[in-house]
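#lab-general

N.A. 3:47 PM
ok so I finally got the sequence cleaned up, no stray characters, all 332 residues accounted for. can someone with queue access submit it? mine expired

B.Y. 3:52 PM
send it over

N.A. 3:53 PM
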Amino acid sequence: MSETYEHLVTAEEAGQRLDKLLGDLDFLPSRSLAAKIIEKGCVEVDGDAAPKRHMCREGEHIAVVMPEREPSTLVPEYIPLDIRFEDEHLIVLSKPSDMVVHPSHGHWSGTLVHALLAHCEGLGTLAGEERPGIVHRLDKDTTGLMMVAKDDETQAALSEAIKIRAIERRYVTLVHGYIAPESGIVDAPLGRHPKDRMRMAVSEGPSSKQAVTTFRVLERFMAGVHDNGYTLVECKLYTGRTHQIRVHMAYIDHPVVGDQMYGRNHAKAEMGLTRQFLHSYKLELTHPISGEEISLRDPLPDDLAQVLLKLAPESMGRTGAGDEIVPIVLPF
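B.Y. 4:20 PM
back already:
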């Protein structure tokens, strides 16, 4: 049975496009999904169908009839999952390298979504048929912790928590060059690259979105024959744009080591890595249903840990944060 939602446009919301206003409401996780249901004729403003570009006015009554969910055409695949937390509402797992989160062009099987469908009976539906349960994504070759919602209520609540920055997501990354300050912030809007739609870029264009990343230094490494040194950093996301950390670090001339799209692309300088040195190591949130405080950490995977062992003789010393976040593991 279809669900109906109603909303009265406030003075603060007046002047916004209909798709943007709906995308900011709790029951819809994104502007793109809002646009889709508007295009399907599921949204009325004061009793009449309205286009997604309709400019809302104070006092208008918006009625949304969510379309019936169509049967999924995705076929579950039994792929092992590294689950770190699970209950009837939520999964937190560690995503491996070389796994795409959801089906897309060129990746119609073997994705995390296919594995999730085989693992559990129910997943949130708010992000669309090809993204069941997905609240946020990690790039194909980025590893580490990510959340999955088993129902629509949890999915909507987690999406809202990300919007209001109530969920803490921290990453460890190794970047090129020597970063002198102990910490810093990159506040630069991101949009699609004007010449390459597969890439993102810092841009002031009309479709660009605010993006904020903070970082602090964990360890510095001396320059060598093939490089100008390296810095191990922790990055904290305040927004969750596509490729955000990778683009922001390249923007300040410290690209992520191993990044095939935004990096230096010199095999020896990239330490032999064929994927970016980027790992989602920490996730902290309040469970949206139970209220439980969840705090999880995920150690560096072996391929990234081996890079640090290789660089160890060039270390200029770890910071206190570095000792705590990435403990030194000596080879035996």
